[in-house]
Amino acid sequence: MILYHGTSDHNARKIEKEGFVPDEKYNWKVKSKEGFVYLSLAYAPFYAMTAKNRSSNKGAIIGVEVSEEKLYPEDDFVMYQLGLPKYTQKDLDKINLVEIKLLYKESLKYMGNACAKPKDIKILGVRFFDTSRLLLVCDPVISPLNYRIMGEYYRNLTRWIYGGQLIEDFTRFE
């Protein structure tokens, strides 16, 4: 399965050289589950735009391939399903992704996101882009409802940027 990882230009260059190595730097107040890399069908451009360690307005989308049986559900999807769209670190720490691994299909279907262990990820390529132009076409709220309504748009946008086209030229569904 082809998925995408959005990150800063700085982090992408490091990933190109070393592969995915989860570290102690997190973009959000609540730290993601340790030992996983978070991947998306739709929101990689947004994650690149919000990534820390950005040395410029450059972000990156990393195209990856992962066998479906190596995927796990993404944190936010699990917490939404538990009725906790806003959650604390303590709430998330109670979750064991390995125990609920089979929910990865629903995580992709309803949220567009999943995660995998670094050793199971094959990097296909990296596309750098100007994140300052992204707000012309994207201001997502990452939720099951947004994905249901706008998922096709954001999946197309992700493929568009990863394909090297200019953000400002993206104006339609494909």
Q: Helices, strands, pairings?
A:
Layout: E1 2-8, H1 9-18, E2 37-40, H2 44-50, E3 58-65, E4 71-73, H3 75-81, H4 89-93, H5 104-111, E5 113-116, E6 122-130, H6 144-162
Antiparallel strand pairs: 1-3, 2-5, 3-6, 4-5
**What is the CATH class?**
Alpha Beta
The domain count comes to 1
What level of helicity do the residues show? 25-40%
Shape annotation: globular
Average residue-wise pLDDT: 89
Instruction: Work out the number of β strands.
Output: 6
Can I get a quick summary?
The chain is α+β, with helices and mostly antiparallel strands. The protein is 32% helix and 20% strand. It starts with a strand and ends in a 12-residue tail after the last helix.
Descriptive notes:
The protein has helices at residues 9-18, 44-50, 75-81, 89-93, 104-111, 144-162, and strands at 2-8, 37-40, 58-65, 71-73, 113-116, 122-130. The protein has six helices and six strands. It is globular and about 40 Å long. The longest helix has 19 residues, at 144-162. The model has no long low-confidence stretch (mean pLDDT 89). The chain is α+β, with helices and mostly antiparallel strands and 174 residues long. 36% of the residues are buried. It starts with a strand and ends in a 12-residue tail after the last helix.
